[in-house]
Amino acid sequence: MINVQEYRKFRSQTFGLGQDVAHDLTKIVRVPALFIDNSQVVKELRQGKLIDLTTKAGAPIDIYEELNNALGKDKMTKKQLVSLKDGRKPYATGLIRALYRGQRSPVIVDWAATNYLSVAVGLGLVDYDYSADIYTVTNLGQKAVSLLDQNKEDLLNQFMLERLYEYPYAAWLIRLMNQNRNKKFSKFDLGANFGFIDEPGFISLPEDLYVDAMLDAKANQDKKEMSRIRSNYESTADKYMRWLAGVLLEYKLIKKDNKTYHRTINGKSVEIKVPAYSLTLNGVRALNKVDGGSRFKRSTKRVMWEYLAPKAENAQKKKTSRALMLKFLSESSNGLSIEKLAEKINAVEPSIAVIPEQVKDDAIGLNRIGIEITINGNHLTLKEPLYDFVIPVTKNYTFKATEADKIKEKLLPVLHNLDHTYLQAVDIAYKDKTTNQENAQLEILSTRLFTKEMEFKGLHLGGVNKPDGFAYDDNDGWIIDSKAYHNGFPFTVSHTDAMGRYIRQYRDRNDNSNWWKTLPSNLPNTQFIYVSSFFIGNYEKQLEDFETRNKMKGSLMEIPQLILLAERYKAGKSSHEEFKNYALANNHNFNKYLAELTK
Questions:
Q1: CA angle 274–441–308, rounded 5-degree value
Q2: Are 40 and 99 in contact (CB under 8 A)?
Q3: Please, are residues 484 and 431 in contact by the beta-carbon 8 Å criterion?
Q4: Helices of type H across 235-307
Q5: 293 contact partners, CB below 8 Å, separation of at least 6
Q6: 341 φ/ψ sector (left φ>0, alpha ψ -120 to 50, else beta)
Q7: Which of 45, 192, 434, 541 is 20 to 30 A from 173 (CA-CA)?
Q8: Would residue 560 be called left, alpha or beta, if left means φ above 0 and alpha means ψ between -120 and 50 degrees?
Q9: 313 vs 400, 404, 428, 431, CA distance in Å?
Q10: What is the DSSP code (8-state) at residue 202?
Q11: Which helix or strand (DSSP H or E) is residue 118 part of?
């Protein structure tokens, strides 16, 4: 059974996916081998390899002694496995670091070691005890090590392939590619279809924007800009997707190719290639094991509480809610309604306070990590048999809703036409510290609410010395700037210098910034718009002063307000002119505009 267990405290960490981990899963078997006293891996380390990679490489003697004493024991801590001290040192500070050679060092860094441990746990070879905060080898891990030590390579490969069939992330990728066997899926395509739709988590930025930016930079022979684009567009999701695709490529379930993009820019022919993947015949056949078919039963999927939300301010609440959802669905062969599920989840822990609309979005998200749930209207049915797992909760702990949670809870019931992916913008806008990828995602989501959802023309710009986007119709243009400010955006002179420059560049068109060159110069009206969490200080007076100085009207708009206006437009209840009037009215009372816009 899937059980809820209370702990006085427990470590919150990540299991399942990996980066900087071998694609050949048989190499991961070296991790559980550390726990088995007579394994070949342990013997190799004891016979000189461990001392070579510790004291002889410059490590203090106490590191060698602690690692040597831990070697072959049936219980180990994360520090013993990954890093007792600074994991950047060129010697082994943890046993997993000693197992694999790094790119520039005889040992891997602690980040890579953590990922090897994460994947070993995710594949069922190693287990984690929340109460004792220690790791142990599983029966599956012991069997894999036995095959490794006996040099039964074919049997070990088959054994690890069976673990892959139980791995929900692999199931998700195979199912996704099977939906369109002729399509080439890039890491951007994979990332866009992965994870929970209404939270940023493993953000993957759109491929078309990456391609446009790279072609422009290549046409201008701007290597620095190309490097910046690669860095900013390489999200957490993309890195995990590359590793996961590499694993399936290793087992010949998918094949690798390139998508080639051509364009003529300023009379110059430019081309870039984006690596992409498609399903092989072996991959199609693997669906019989993953989903059940032919003479095969559907594989039992290995799920953990840690799989069920990315790192976020309220990740524990989301993981627990989704884990309880799986528990109740696994106990009901006929499925449950989303209303009943919400009721059952909240009965276990009222402070989760999940609403039915969130349960439905979570079901979509669970499908997008490889746990198949059929969604028939408001009725959900779990298709997967699941291995038992623990739902850890802290004793007497009360979950608290973040400000983003509170806003999304009000938005979800009224978004009937707009893709809930845009709710990611709420999380990002209210986030305390954002990454470059998250800032880029906020820019893209804000711009696409104009261009994709409200049918303005325009594009995302972004990058150095450019506004985030520009949207327009026959009458009006909007210079868009998006700001993630956890404590509210202060509309002060120091924060508005860039917008003043964008206004002058667009109006005067006599500088080298280039961003305005493809945009219309003869629009009857152009406005600026800041999109953020909320605004603080004397922003109304400061906005009025800014408009006067720059001779342009503008809007300060909270991201949930923009989402609601886009929903209203898609429902056929608003027009571009009504959007303009509402935007320039600068109404900032959330509950008031929620009531107004949902009439």
A1: 90
A2: no
A3: yes
A4: 236-250, 281-287
A5: 287
A6: alpha
A7: 434
A8: alpha
A9: 10, 10, 11, 8
A10: S
A11: helix 110-122
- The answer for residues whose C-beta is within 8 angstroms of residue 457's C-beta and 6 or more apart is 451, 471, 472, 473
Alpha helices in 338-377 (DSSP H): 338-348, 356-367
Q: State the pTM of this model.
A: 0.91
Kindly tell me the burial class for residue 332, based on how many C-beta atoms sit within 10 Å of its own C-beta (0-12, 13-18, 19 or more). Answer: middle
Burial class (CB in 10 A: 0-12, 13-18, 19+), 555: buried
CA dist 68 and 56 (Å) reads 14
* 3-class DSSP assignment, residue 567: helix
In the chain, the amino acid numbered 27 is K
Of the candidates 530, 308, 559, which has an alpha carbon nearest to the alpha carbon of residue 427?
559
DSSP single-letter state for residue 13: -
Answer for the pair 237, 195: CB distance below 8 angstroms, yes or no.
yes
At residue 513, what are phi and psi to the nearest 5 degrees?
A: -70, -30
Output the tens digit of pLDDT for each of the chain's 599 residues.
899 999 988 888 888 888 889 999 999 999 999 999 999 999 999 999 999 999 999 999 999 999 999 999 999 999 999 999 876 788 999 999 999 998 889 999 999 999 999 999 999 999 999 999 999 999 999 999 999 999 999 999 999 999 999 999 999 999 999 999 999 998 888 888 888 887 776 556 778 888 888 888 888 888 888 888 877 666 666 778 889 999 999 999 999 999 999 988 777 888 999 999 999 999 999 999 999 987 899 999 999 999 998 777 788 999 999 999 999 999 999 999 999 999 999 999 999 999 999 999 999 999 999 999 999 999 999 999 999 999 999 988 899 988 999 999 999 999 999 999 999 999 999 988 888 878 888 999 999 999 999 999 999 887 778 899 999 999 999 999 999 998 898 888 888 889 999 999 999 888 877 888 889 988 999 999 999 999 998 888 999 999 999 999 999 999 999 999 999 999 999 999 999 999 998 777 777 888 887 77
**DSSP characters for 143-174?**
HHHHHHHTT-HHHHHHHHHHHHHT-HHHHHHH
Q: How far apart are CA 481 and CA 185, in angstroms?
A: 31
Residues 6 or more apart whose CB falls under 8 angstroms from that of 22 comprise 28, 100
Tokens of 530: 């800041």
Q: Tell me the C-alpha to C-alpha distance, in Å, between residue 187 and each of 184, 276, 310, 428.
A: 10, 7, 18, 22
Distances in Å between the alpha carbon of 182 and those of 278, 279, 286? 7, 8, 17
Q: Tell me which amino acid residue 327 is.
A: K
Give the C-alpha separation, 76 to 113, whole Å: 14
What does the angle CA 265 – CA 267 – CA 268 come to, to the nearest 5 degrees? Answer: 65
**Contact in structure between 278 and 257 (CB atoms under 8 Å):** yes
Total length of the chain: 599
